[in-house]
Specification:
With 43 residues, this protein is an alpha+beta fold. 35% of the residues lie in helices and 30% in strands. It has one domain. It has a 3-stranded antiparallel β-sheet with strand order 1-2-3, with helices on one face. The longest helix has 15 residues.
Length: 43
């Protein structure tokens, strides 16, 4: 499973959960997933 696929799965769950925090998952050479409130990105 790619980092983008994981981010897409997280995105649907975070949007409906009312998540109001920021979290960064650094997966090394595979990339980064950043969750900031209801926004999920792989930058």
């Amino acid at each position: 499973m790619s980092v983008q696929e994981i981010a897409d799965r997280i995105k649907s769950r975070v949007a409906s959960a009312g998540f109001e925090h920021s979290v960064k998952f650094d997966t090394g050479s595979d990339g980064v997933i950043v969750i900031d409130g209801a926004t999920v990105s792989t930058t």
